[in-house]
What we know:
The structure is a single chain. The protein is of the alpha/beta class. The protein folds into two domains: 6-149, Rossmann fold (3-Layer(aba) Sandwich), CATH 3.40.50; 167-304, Rossmann fold (3-Layer(aba) Sandwich). 38% of the residues lie in helices and 17% in strands. It has helices spanning 11-19, 57-69, 79-85, 103-112, 127-141, 144-165, 189-195, 214-220, 234-241, 254-257, 266-269, 277-288; strands at residues 6-8, 26-30, 44-48, 75-77, 89-93, 118-122, 171-178, 183-184, 186-187, 198-199, 204-205, 224-227, 261-264, 302-304. The protein has a six-stranded mixed β-sheet.
Amino acid sequence: MSDLRIACFLPAATEMVCDLGLFDHLVGVSHECDYPAQVKTKPVVVRCAMDLASLSLQQIDEAVSARMGQGQSVYAVDEEAIKKVKPTLIITQDLCQVCAPSGNEATQALRTLVPKPEFLWQTPHSFDNVLADLIALGEKTGTLDKARQLAAQAQARIDAVKTKSKELKPKKVFFMEWVDPIYCGGHWIPEMIGWAGGVDNISKPNVDSVRIPWDDVLKLDPEVLIVSPCGYNTQRSLEQAELLKTRPHWNDLQAVKNKRVYAVDGNSYFARPALRLVDGVELLAHLIHPEVFDWKGRPEAFAVVSL
């Protein structure tokens, strides 16, 4: 395995590579790879093709939708950087073009490299898929035993939450993946909420999150509202949650009346299909049933939205 040289086109894969003890074999990352912190020392081989830093949530949604509607990618592979690091394995995905480069970019990079690297595609839609991707990465990199161990530990933690929560009355939850316009949760989010003792009848299991009308939130009238704009940390989620206060009948929601609106670090615990989703389940359990579940993780993982 001494000749293994890994380039990750998406942050979740970078996390998995490091979880498997392969940091020294990591030769290229995307500009969004930031966990664990030492990966920020690695060469960046993928960058955003758009300048989104100064845009509002609505402007970002419009700009990304327009670019994708034109058949253009949100991300660009730096072919010169890829050539320089000479990866033997590239990890990419076909899941979400807003999250990382997918098929077209990978194909272009493949054509420029000599010798040609192997590719490992990660396209998870559920937590089981995430664990399967971890196992596949372990098989590909000679770390299968470690991958199986990590998967078993993750499943045991999930089972511990499920055992406690199944004795509790489920609470109505709405998980908001984007604030303006409003998107519901998708992929693994509904099952995470269910394991944590909640039920979100709006979010879509095993498929992309979708735009929904505000009236759907009012009809659900959630007891707990989780604000988790995709890719945002807690502080930025708090800032975006302020936009919700101008929505019609905001103050009529149960979650608002009972001060159960939370901003969370979606970037760390919900958006990336990696092992930190387990932390996300434990965090949800605490936010939904604080009388039963403690939160032993980072204090800045969530904040109560001031109402």
